[in-house]
Amino acid sequence: MAVFTEVSLDEARAFIAPLDVGTLTGLRGIGAGIENTNYFVTTDRGEYVLTIFERLTFEQLPFYLHLMQHLARRGIPVPDPHADAAGEILHTLKGKPAALVDKLEGGHQLAPDHHHCEQVGGMLARMHLAGQDYPRHQPNLRGLAWWAETVPLVLPYLTAAQHTLISEELAFQQELADSPAFQGLPAGPIHADLFRDNVMFAGLPGHERLTGFFDFYFAGVDSFLFDIAVCLNDWCIDLDTGALIEDRAAAFVAAYERSRPLEGNEVRLLPALMRAAALRFWTSRLWDFHLPRDAALLQPHDPAHFERVLQARIDNPWHPPR
Ligand SMILES: Nc1ncnc2c1ncn2[C@@H]1O[C@H](COP(=O)(O)OP(=O)(O)O)[C@@H](O)[C@H]1O
Ligand SMILES: N[C@@H](CCOP(=O)(O)O)C(=O)O
Q: Where is the Aminoglycoside phosphotransferase domain (predicted)?
């Protein structure tokens, strides 16, 4: 269970007191998640999620929390952060930054079909459009600069073949990033980590409806195409092999394009961005696996999965049907 910072009932009670969410009736540590400490908080008025940020700083967090507030106000289903009487949504608990957000209804859809992929694709486009007038700016902190810093740290743990694959891919992405086509990609605030476990669905089997996107703590300003690529690499693949399930990917992109049609360069660069997205998560998983931070009980994700995904994207580039 990834509870890095233990919170007592008394500490939770004192924390929620200024937030006007009622009286505490329950507190439960959340096992999933690898970045932050999360607790479900129950009061006589409802259910909330308390997050204590273990990595992000007081300077970085306003970008994420105000983005969630901005999107929620525009009708995108994301957890809305609770403010104190002064309107502040970033709080402090045990000396660390913390927030209280609404708990989304439902659960994860870990075995998605067309129906789920279409809903995620459609909502992703609506989220990109809704974020376009968000005034704050923060780059994607897990973007190219971070990959270039982190790949050398994990190289000592890799086989010769892995060393070659990751180094060549990093060089390919650095060259791509210098190209005018890449630099002209439409950009704005993106989620950047919209995996199956960061989306909720509710409803009867076969009729589930999307109830929200959450975990915006890797969000940043980057190309919309990178966000699409991250999703395709998770929602539309066979998890055993990393192979793309093309009809599911086509359904995802078609639903996205009903709200925001892709530009020519986006269609052309999608295969390269799907490689970039695989590289990003292979690198972070290697980093978490070989250079772990303290946690009460942390289970790092399997890095080999994204090595397979990267290899599959290189071997079989995919363009959405036109
Ligand atoms: N707003 C929310 N509504 C409902 N469940 C949530 C919410 N935020 C987090 N959770 C639950 O907590 C788990 C861990 O949260 P996550 O944000 O993925 O953690 P981490 O930031 O540590 O990776 C999620 O898988 C989900 O089950
Ligand atoms: N989605 C990433 C891990 C990020 O952790 P999260 O629990 O905050 O989504 C991966 O699968 O490597």
A: 27-262
Cα 5 to ligand 2 centroid, rounded to whole Å: 19
Q: Output the pTM of the full model.
A: 0.94
d(CA 213, CA 200): 7
Predicted confidence (pLDDT) per residue in 218-270, tens digit: 999 999 999 999 999 999 999 999 999 999 999 999 999 999 999 999 999 99
Q: Rounded to the nearest whole angstrom, what is the distance from the C-alpha of residue 284 to the centroid of ligand 2? A: 9
For the chain, the structural domain boundaries read 9-102, 114-315
Q: Does domain 114-315 have CATH number 3.90.1200.10?
A: yes
CA of 215 to the centre of ligand 1 (A): 6
3-state helix, strand, coil in the chain (%, to 5): 45, 15, 40
CB of 304 shorter than 6 A to ligand 2 = no
| CATH class of segment(s) 9-102 | alpha beta
Q: Could you tell me if the CB of 51 is within 6 A of ligand 2?
A: no
Query: Model confidence over 177-230: pLDDT tens digits?
Result: 999 999 999 999 999 999 999 999 999 999 999 999 999 999 999 999 999 999
CA nearest ligand 2 atom 10, residue: 281
